[in-house]
Structures are given as structure tokens and as C-alpha cells.
């Protein structure tokens, strides 16, 4: 049973309670304030209470901060990127030996092969059973590859002696007797996620194995979506956030989420950017003759291509909750062509969009990087400034892309600040019903905010970003060396947006107080990415990122965009903090902290009737808006407010 110490116990009192529990005669383990007793107690000593039995302990990073590495012979899973490959099923000695040699040459360090195959239909090939295990062991010895195979029932455990890594498949993820028994035997297990299991259920299944002394590697293989056995979605967007919850190594198996090898390859390439510890791939030398799932098995040549993609190419990626790569570093601009070809291998052309301020500085370098990879480049240089972000200019861009015969397999490339990024992504999202977009931000504001998250927009006479779509970039590449060319006002513009994040996150606030500016940039990116992952289409929590923007956008529009976005947002945060103080959300002490943080942005002359522009804000739902109300640094909450409350609240400014 799971218990929890009372919160006000001191060390001596805890020791007394611990001794009392020991007298019951059951083994126990402590995890911070939790105590796990292996057994049921008739009565509890004073000082402990029953805890929520769904609490994650052994799998939780809260109790085990460092990443776990599972060693399987000489292979360390959780340290670097591990490729495991082989056929879905063992079909015979000669076939398996041929496949094993091919995958080893292609980069695999472990061999997979099913001997017991739980199948939906009783008439499907069920595997060779114990004979298949013996073949797998023999081939593993001959090739030097550790072997992994799926176990379906605890009665087979003796036959699995000599199998280096046991797999428990999706159908058995909650076979609790099997989980407990492999744990008791101290087995190393790769645990696949069930067809319709939540993350919590998956991790609790791992707890069964861990609590009995086993070792666990998690493996995402996709979940059921619209129904039907082949309607499986590879749910890898959650992997970066899962990494924050658990210390366990995480693999991915893209095979079941696609009905063709080509789709498996595409999913596999995407998954390489997720911060995983490895991949299990189904590989067969003759997929058309495979007895099990040949339709999505990769050829050895495809697998060899796959193993050459990840670690070196992704080393400068910021791991976030995004479903696409975000690269940040000095000097990464020259790698844009290489990264496009790896993400979009069929691309022939790049449609490069920049503005008249950025073009003289970086256009040539980007063009050369693209051309070096064999991409034909068409470039458009737009006027600088917010007025460029209009429907008229966007339609001109679309017409130019058509003239240049840009295909749906090609890429729109945005090189510049927020205006260029927005208009380019919008154009890409509607061009031929969707074309890949690549974001290369050259300003701090674009780098930490507007270049990622998938929102883009065009301005109209009625308001900023009044027209827009959701369209994720293929990747973001932020070369921080480009910031050295920014004029002082543009630097301040970016800092204004950063200060918004400092109010949203106490961690970012503290980094700025310690003058750790670049660390604050990275944390701001991660903060936004996590929220975007939870609420991509802006229906709930993502409204927190609108902090300062309700007032900020109104100021921009009323000033005819003579004020920059960042300085308006920073002033908007101050105005919204003042509003919060008047409403009783914010204490005087917290208000002063925010005022001091924003002190460089409090002298904007207010344009005439700017408050009226709030009524044209795109975030209104009827006469109500979800407003990010400031209750303190790191404590911003969404509160529904009416038009009248807004108008009355901001008239005083």
C-alpha cells in the first residue's frame, strides 16, 4: 500500500513512524514524503495517511532526477541513440541470419524478432514459438547482436532465458501478472504503450515491473484513432514532455502507424527530432514474402539511410514540446540547405522571402547554402515594416510562387523578423492547400516567439492579425549571430516580448535578475512550446501567451504601427498589471516588482482613442474575452472579462 507522511513531521518524528511501520514486518521503501509498504496494514500509525495509489514513484523524474541507462550486454539504452531492427517475426534460420547481417551493417546494435505473435485473427501466422526463440538466440550469437523478443505469457519465461531484452507488447501492457513476474525475475523489459492507453496508465504499468526489481525501457508504438486496425496514430508529440515526467529511456516503433514502408520512413524521420533514446524498426530483405506485416517493413537500404540521419544533424536542436525541430546556436545559418534536404528529401526548389533590411546581410549566405544542396532558389525582397503584412502583399507573394512553379514538395523560406515570418507562413499555408515553411528568424522577438507555435496572421483595417491560419513550420533555425546586426531599438523590441515571459514564469524572471539573458531566451522558447503542445489551436491555456497583447495590439494599431510590437507588449503588460491591481488581483508589492521589471518601457506616448481598438481584438468571443490576469510573477490566470469591464478598466490609463 502507498502511504504519505504528514507534511508537518520533523526528521525525528518520521524516524519514529518508520520504525513503527517496520514492526509490521512488511518490506518498505521511501520516496521523499511517500512510503510504499509491500502489504496491507490493518491500521496505520499516527503520522502517515493513505496516498493516491496512482502516484508515480519509481518511474518519476521527481524521485529519480537523472536519466536511467539500461545496459543490455554492451549496448547502453538511454545513452545516445540506439537502433534496434529486424523482422516482425522469426521465419527461419537462413532468413533471419540474412536480415540480421543486413541490419547490423546498416547501423543496428540489437536484433528484434518475434517468436510468439499475438494476432487479431486466429488464422494469422502466430510465430514459431520456442523454436523461433532458439533460432533468434543462435543468430544473435553468430552476429554478436543482443536480441529482443516479445513475451506473451509468464508461463514462457523459462524459454526466454538467453533472450537479452524482453518485449511486452501493446496487447499485454496491462497483463499485470506478467508484469509482476518479469519484475521478480529482474528482467530488462521494453514496454510498449497499449492501443488506447493514457500516459499515466503506461507509466503505472512500468511501476509494476520496477516495483518488483525489473528494468524498463518505454516504447511508443501509436494509439488507435478513428477505428480499424490500421487507423493508428504515432503519438510522438508528447515525447519531449514525457521526458520531463520520467527518467526511463524512451524508444519509438513507427511501424504500426503506417500501412506502407514509405510512410514508415517519413514517420521515422520526424521522430528523430523528438529527443528519443532510440528506435525499433521492422526490416525485411524481402517484405513481399514476409509472413507477418511485410507491408510496412523497411528494406535494409532504407534502414541504412535512416541510421545516418539523427545524432550529428540534430546536435544543436533545442529539445522542446514542439513536433518539429528548433535549432538555436551561433553559425547555424549555413546549415539551412542541408536541413531542408534532410527534412524534405524530394524538395527541388526554395522560395526565399526576406525584407530590404535583412537581404543585404544574410540573403546571399542562405541562397548559397540552399544551392549547395542542389535547390533552385527564387527570392523575393519585401519592404520592411508592419504595413507589409497585408493581404495585398501576400497575394503578390502567392502569384510569384506560382510563376516560379513552386511545388507542394518544395519549401517557402522566411528569412527575417516577425513580419516576414508571418506573411511567409500564411502564404505557405494556403499555397496549393499547404506547402512546407521554414523559419529563419533574425530578430530576438521572432527567435523567442513569433517564428514557432504555428500561428501566423495578416493585418487588416480592423486590427492586427485579423486574418490567420495555424500552420507549423517544417523547422526553425535561429542563428544568434544575426542579433549582432540589430539596431538598438530592435534589440529593445525583442526584450519587450521576453519580459512578458518573465511575468509568466518566475524561473525566467530570476534568470533575468541574474543577467542570464541567453538562458532566459531558451526557457521562454520551452515555456511557449509546452503551452502550444497542450493547446495548439488557442482554445484555452494558450491565451496566457496573450499577456500584454490586448493592450499592445491596440497601441500598435492606433499608432499606425509607428510603435514596435515588443515595446507595445511590454507597456501592455504594465497596463494590464495596473488593471489587475485595480481589480484586486495583484498586491502592491507584486505590482512594484513588475513595474521595476518594465521600467524601460513605461514612457510610450498613448495615441488618441487607443482603448477603442481593444474592441476589435480578434480574441473576443461575443462580448467576452479570456483575459490573462496577473496575480503575481509566475501567477497569471485566465479570467473571463466583458467588454464593459475592459472599457471601464482601461479608461484610467
Would you mind describing this structure in some detail?
With 653 residues, the protein is α/β, with parallel strands linked by helices. The protein is built from 21 helices and 26 strands. α13 links the parallel β20 (411-416) and β21. α10 (336-343) crosses α11 (359-372) and α15 (488-504) crosses α16. The longest helix is centred in the C-terminal third of the chain and has 19 residues, at 565-583. Residues 310-315 have low confidence and may be disordered.
In a nutshell, what does this entry contain?
With 653 residues, the chain is an alpha/beta fold.
Which tags fit this structure?
653 residues, 6-stranded parallel sheet, 26 strands, globular
Amino acid at each position: 500500500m502507498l502511504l504519505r507522511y504528514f507534511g508537518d513531521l520533523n526528521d525525528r518524528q518520521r524516524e519514529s513512524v518508520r520504525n513503527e511501520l517496520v514492526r509490521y514486518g512488511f518490506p518498505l521503501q521511501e520516496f521523499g514524503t511517500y512510503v510504499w509498504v509491500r502489504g496491507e496494514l490493518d491500521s496505520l500509525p499516527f503520522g502517515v495517511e493513505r496516498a493516491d495509489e496512482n502516484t508515480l514513484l519509481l518511474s518519476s523524474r521527481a524521485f529519480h532526477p537523472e536519466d536511467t541507462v539500461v545496459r543490455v550486454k554492451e549496448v547502453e539504452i538511454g545513452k545516445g541513440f540506439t537502433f534496434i531492427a529486424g523482422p516482425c517475426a522469426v521465419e527461419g534460420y537462413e532468413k533471419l541470419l540474412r536480415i540480421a547481417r543486413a541490419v547490423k551493417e546498416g547501423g543496428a546494435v540489437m536484433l528484434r524478432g518475434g517468436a510468439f505473435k499475438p494476432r487479431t485473427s486466429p488464422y494469422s501466422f502466430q510465430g514459431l514459438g520456442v523454436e523461433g526463440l532458439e533460432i533468434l538466440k543462435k543468430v544473435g550469437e553468430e552476429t554478436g547482436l543482443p536480441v529482443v523478443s516479445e513475451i506473451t505469457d509468464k508461463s514462457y519465461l523459462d524459454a526466454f532465458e538467453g533472450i537479452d531484452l524482453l518485449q511486452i507488447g501493446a496487447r499485454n501492457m496491462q497483463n499485470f501478472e506478467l508484469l509482476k513476474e518479469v519484475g521478480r525475475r529482474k528482467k530488462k523489459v521494453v514496454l510498449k504503450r497499449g492501443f488506447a492507453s493514457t500516459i499515466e496508465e503506461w507509466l503505472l504499468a512500468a511501476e509494476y515491473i520496477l516495483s518488483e526489481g525489473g528494468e524498463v525501457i518505454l516504447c511508443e508504438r501509436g494509439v488507435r484513432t478513428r477505428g480499424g486496425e490500421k487507423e493508428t496514430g504515432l503519438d510522438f508529440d508528447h515525447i519531449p514532455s514525457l521526458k520531463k515526467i520520467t527518467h526511463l529511456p524512451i524508444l519509438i516503433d513507427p511501424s504500426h502507424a503506417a500501412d506502407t514502408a514509405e510512410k514508415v520512413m517519413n514517420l521515422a524521420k520526424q521522430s528523430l527530432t523528438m529527443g528519443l533514446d532510440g528506435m525499433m524498426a521492422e526490416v525485411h530483405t524481402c517484405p513481399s514474402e514476409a509472413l507477418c506485416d511485410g507491408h510496412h517493413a523497411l528494406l535494409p537500404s532504407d534502414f541504412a539511410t535512416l541510421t545516418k540521419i539523427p545524432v550529428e544533424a540534430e546536435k544543436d536542436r533545442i529539445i522542446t514540446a514542439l513536433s518539429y525541430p528548433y535549432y538555436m546556436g551561433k553559425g547555424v545559418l549555413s546549415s539551412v540547405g542541408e536541413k531542408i534536404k534532410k527534412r524534405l528529401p524530394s524538395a527541388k526548389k526554395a522560395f526565399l522571402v526576406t525584407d530590404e533590411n535583412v537581404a543585404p546581410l544574410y540573403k546571399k549566405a542562405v541562397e548559397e547554402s540552399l544551392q549547395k544542396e542542389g535547390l533552385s532558389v527564387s527570392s523575393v525582397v519585401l519592404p520592411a515594416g508592419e504595413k507589409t503584412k497585408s493581404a495585398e502583399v501576400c497575394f503578390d507573394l502567392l502569384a510569384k510562387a506560382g510563376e516560379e512553379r513552386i511545388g507542394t514538395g518544395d519549401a517557402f523560406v522566411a528569412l527575417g523578423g516577425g513580419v516576414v515570418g508571418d506573411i511567409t507562413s500564411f502564404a505557405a499555408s494556403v499555397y496549393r492547400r499547404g506547402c512546407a515553411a521554414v523559419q529563419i528568424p533574425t530578430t530576438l522577438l521572432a527567435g523567442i516567439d513569433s517564428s514557432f507555435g504555428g500561428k501566423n496572421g495578416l493585418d487588416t483595417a480592423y486590427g492586427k492579425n485579423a486574418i490567420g491560419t495555424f500552420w507549423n513550420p517544417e523547422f526553425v533555425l535561429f542563428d544568434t549571430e544575426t542579433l549582432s546586426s540589430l539596431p538598438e531599438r530592435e534589440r529593445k523590441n525583442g526584450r519587450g516580448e521576453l519580459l512578458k515571459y518573465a511575468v509568466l514564469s518566475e524561473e525566467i524572471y530570476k534568470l533575468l535578475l541574474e543577467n542570464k539573458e541567453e538562458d532566459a531566451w531558451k526557457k521562454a522558447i520551452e515555456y511557449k512550446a509546452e503551452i502550444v503542445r497542450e493547446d495548439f489551436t488557442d482554445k484555452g491555456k494558450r491565451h496566457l501567451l496573450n499577456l500584454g497583447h490586448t493592450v499592445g495590439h491596440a497601441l500598435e494599431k492606433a499608432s499606425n504601427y509607428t510603435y514596435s510590437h515588443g515595446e507595445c507588449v511590454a507597456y501592455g503588460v504594465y497596463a494590464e498589471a495596473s488593471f489587475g491591481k485595480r481589480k484586486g488581483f495583484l498586491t502592491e508589492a507584486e505590482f512594484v516588482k513588475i513595474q521595476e521589471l518594465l521600467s524601460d518601457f513605461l514612457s510610450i506616448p498613448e495615441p488618441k482613442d487607443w482603448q477603442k481598438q481593444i474592441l476589435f481584438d480578434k480574441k473576443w468571443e461575443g462580448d467576452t474575452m479570456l483575459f490573462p490576469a496577473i496575480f503575481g510573477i509566475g501567477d497569471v490566470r485566465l479570467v473571463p472579462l466583458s467588454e464593459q469591464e475592459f472599457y471601464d478598466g482601461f479608461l484610467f490609463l
